[in-house]
């Protein structure tokens, strides 16, 4: 009888340790990467006037890979600008990203090439179908609400200072 109790206690302890490891390994909003907000706002020139956004700039490989993963919330006037080394075709996905996003694909010249919607936690590939140099991620619906359309011009030192 004592042997059976020992086995039951051992199995129970193993289950608790396994569950604790599983819970600890599950990413949370505390795992989200927070980059400093750039001092200069990004401005989008739309047909109905300029729209201004505070942005974080993801310009390293590690920062671009993490992006807005695990973020639960973001201000309506805030976004993340992805800066690539050269103009090229890019693919995004929303794995580990709980917020729906607008992905605004921008050419070397600062002009918007495409606007796509990213669905939360989706592994579907999001691509503009043409080479771009920058991508701006905003809360889903922001582009439509602010009248941001393909062909509009984005202005920011990170865009203006890029070469290639």
From TrEMBL:
Pfam family, one: DUF192
Keyword annotations from UniProtKB, A to Z: Signal
Domain of life: Bacteria
Name under which the protein is recorded: DUF192 domain-containing protein
UniProt KW Signal keyword: yes
InterPro entries in UniProt: DUF192 (IPR003795), Saro_0823-like_sf (IPR038695)
Signal peptide range: 1-19
């Amino acid at each position: 009888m004592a042997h059976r109790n020992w086995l039951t206690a051992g199995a129970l302890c193993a289950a608790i340790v396994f569950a604790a490891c599983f819970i600890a390994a599950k990413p949370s909003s505390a795992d989200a990467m927070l980059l400093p907000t750039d001092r200069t706002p990004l401005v989008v020139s739309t047909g109905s006037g300029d729209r201004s956004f505070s942005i974080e700039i993801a310009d390293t490989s590690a920062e671009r890979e993490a992006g807005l993963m695990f973020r639960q919330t973001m201000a309506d006037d805030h976004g993340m600008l992805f800066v690539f080394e050269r103009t090229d075709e890019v693919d995004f996905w929303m794995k580990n990203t709980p917020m729906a996003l607008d992905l605004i694909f921008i050419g070397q010249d600062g002009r918007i090439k495409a606007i796509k919607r990213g669905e939360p936690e989706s592994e579907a590939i999001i691509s503009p179908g043409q080479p771009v140099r920058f991508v701006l991620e905003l809360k889903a619906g922001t582009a439509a609400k602010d009248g941001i359309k393909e062909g509009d011009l984005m202005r920011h030192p990170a865009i203006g200072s890029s070469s290639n």
